[in-house]
Amino acid sequence: MKKQSLVVLMLLFVAVGGSASQSTKKPSSTSRPSTPAATKPTSHAKQQRPPSSMSKEEAFFYYCALFGSPSDVAERYGKYFDATNYATAMADEFQRTQYWERLNAKIAKKIGAVNFDKKFMLVGSTAHEGYTSLGEYSFDTHSFPVYNIPTIGFCLDAGRTFFGNCTGTVLHLDVFKRENALNQDQVTWSLPMSEQKAKAFVTSRAGAQRRVAARIVYSVLPMKGAAGDNTFGRAATLRSVIHSVEIFEDETLTTKLGSLPIRSSGGPATAAEWQKVAEDAKAATEVIGTYRYISSYKDNSYRRPDAPISGSLTMTNVGLSLSGEQPDGAAKPLTLAFTDLYASTLEHYGGKSANAVMRLLRANYDGGSKDFKDFRVLLAPYWRDEHRTRLVFPDLAERDRFFRDLTRTLQSWSDKNAALATAKLEIEERCLLVSGYLIPCSESDPFKFSR
Questions:
Q1: Is the pTM of this model over 0.85?
Q2: 287-439 adopts what CATH topology?
Q3: Per residue in 241-288, pLDDT tens?
Q4: 71: which of 17, 34, 248, 282 is 20 to 30 A away, CA to CA?
Q5: Nearest CA-CA partner of 259 in 182, 181, 190
Q6: Which residues of 432-443 are buried (b: 16+ CB within 10 A; e: fewer)?
Q7: Structural domain boundaries of the chain?
């Protein structure tokens, strides 16, 4: 087995636990107040302890539960989290088989035990770059704007460069980012404070930077964030819901300045409600249609027009499934939920849903030969242009049938799942040519261009 270097973990920010709350007895109105006797904490009190930070091992299992386990999941887990035993077992063929069996059983159990009801805590730092800070006080809203919300992520990788990039073939996982929280728009990212307290705070800083520490409590949702393979390996993000954002003087959490308001949108509010919305949005209850599409070409390097490989594309009320036949006889199927499209769009726009736009349009592709013409559908920015899309059809009629069905189905899904449709959906009725021009779509002459 190929020797690899030890795993390096990059933890961007680390959550620090707070203190558990205690309760006291209310004194009788007819008796003098007295100090309550110490009581043994109840099981309920234990449950109220502040959430902990997500560990790198927990993040790995959440990733596997959401995105699926890679074929070498046991090897990766052994290298990341059980390096000593892994190295020993790999060097001893008499231990190796039993080690794999134990490890695979453990991994399956841990993935099955992933709990999306669990809350996690993240505390930012006033010293680290990316620190949270307060802006200039607003006398209109009586609040300070809050900048630079902390994030947490892990770089689980078998090889790190001198420059510290997350490179290799393993996993770069963003666990929490403000832009990946589905209810980020419900949070008022300003800290309410009276003028008197605000003046005291500003005076205490004596013109210095207004660095503060943010403590965020969040849950991971059972839905995929953006994911993809690139030159740095595997990158993925988790989607979350924010439960609370508290602002403290510093990361010791001894002096609390206040909490950010989280308003109700009339939609899902609790983690359980968001989970129900996410699950319902991915539950296929109807097959809209099946379509013939070009899955690949016998010579994928040159995309020979005389050698297309046909595949089957299925549309349901919640997404698309492509069969993915390949030249070597294998298949690379793709399942694309509408939630994935919106998640990718939101990430493309930096988490700013007010600016996010998802475009659905058709492209008439002319490869420079009279025999090499096909018809495509683009979903931008998921597929940014006609060269990247996998929605390629051999004839115009099949493409347009798919486009009409997708337009109707995607609009219906977006209306029904407004909380997850975090971008404006634009339907382009014109057709795009390779030259970049948009022309009126024509059945009789689909490639004709006229100014």
A1: no
A2: PH-domain like (2.30.29)
A3: 899 999 999 888 999 999 999 987 667 767 778 778 888 888 999 999
A4: 282
A5: 190
A6: bbeeeeebebee
A7: 48-267, 287-439
If we measure between CA atoms, which residue out of 354, 320, 351, 350 comes closest to residue 338? 320
Give the pLDDT confidence of 131-166 residue by residue, as tens digits.
Answer: 899 999 999 999 999 998 988 888 765 444 334 455
Where does the pLDDT of residue 88 fall: very low under 50, low under 70, confident under 90, or very high at 90 and above? Answer: very high
Distance CA 268, CA 260 (A): 18
Angle formed by the axes of helices 73-81 and 83-90, to 10°? 120
Query: 29 pLDDT band (50/70/90 cuts)?
Result: very low
124 burial class (0-12, 13-18, 19+ CB within 10 angstroms)? buried
SS (H, E, C) the chain: CCCCCCCECCCCCCCCCCCCCCCCCCCCCCCCCCCCCCCCCCHHHHHCCCCCCCCHHHHHHHHHHHHCCCCCHHHHHHHHHCHHHHHHHHCCHHHHHHHHHHHHHHHHHHHHCCCCCCEEEEECCCCCCCCEEECCCECCCCEEEEECCCCEEEEEECCCCCCCCCCCCCEEEEEECHHHECCHHHECCEEECCHHHHHHHHHHHCCCCCEEEEEEEEEEEEEEEEEEEECCEEEEEEEEEEEEEEEECCCCCCCEEEECCECCCCCCCCHHHHHHHHHHHCCCCCEEEEEEEEEEECCCCCCCCCCEEEEEEEEECCEEEECCECCCCCECCEEEEHHHHHHHHHHHCCCCCCCCEEEEEEEEEECCCCCCEEEEEEEECCCCCCCCCCCEECCHHHHHHHHHHHHHHHHHHHHHCCCCCCCEEEEEEEEEECCCCEECCCCCCCCCCCC
* 308 strand-pairing partners: 297
| Confidence check: pLDDT of 211 > 80 | yes
Give the pair of three-digit tokens for residue 89. Answer: 């077992």
